[in-house]
Amino acid sequence: MGSLTVVVLKYAPPYTASEGTATTQGFTMASTSKAQEDFDRRYITSTEITRGLGISRSSLMDARKRGKMPNAICLHGQIYLWERAEVEPFVAAWKVMLDARRQAVGQ
User: Fold this and answer.
1) Cβ neighbours around 75 below 10 Å, total
2) Taking every pair of C-alpha atoms in the chain, what is the biggest distance, in angstroms?
3) What is the pLDDT of residue 28?
4) Listed residue (48, 50, 43, 51) closest to 73, CA to CA
5) Do 49 and 88 touch, CB atoms closer than 8 A?
6) pLDDT in tens, 78-88
7) Whether the predicted model's global pTM rises above the 0.85 cut
């Protein structure tokens, strides 16, 4: 697996009109936007996968444990990331299966 790049956001107090510097929830974004875009292109989170498939996080974690998904990058024992290019074929196949099941139930 490739190397993991960690992006650290610099904390700044929330925006005040007199300062003239916009922040998002107390974090400055100007210097990190390119890094965040690169990160988002390379990695996908469990939240993105579950929302895209319309499944629960526990279903995704169960699939991961059973070997139905590629190995994830685990951060702090609870945050899971996958390399997007590696996991997309699995997610696409899972989506086809879920759509077929949902269509069959809906008829």
Assistant:
1) 11
2) 59
3) 52
4) 43
5) no
6) 899 999 999 99
7) no
Full set of structural domains in the chain with CATH = 42-106 (1.10.1660)
Q: Which residues of 35-67 are buried (b: 16+ CB within 10 A; e: fewer)?
A: eeeeeeeebbebeebbeebebeeeebbeebeee
* pLDDT for 11: 45
Between the alpha carbon of residue 96 and those of residues 5, 52, 73, 101, the distances in Å are 32, 12, 25, 9
Residues of the chain under the 70 pLDDT cut:
1-32, 107
Q: Is 82 exposed, middle or buried (0-12, 13-18, 19+ CB in 10 A)?
A: buried
Chain-centre distance for alpha carbon 67: 19
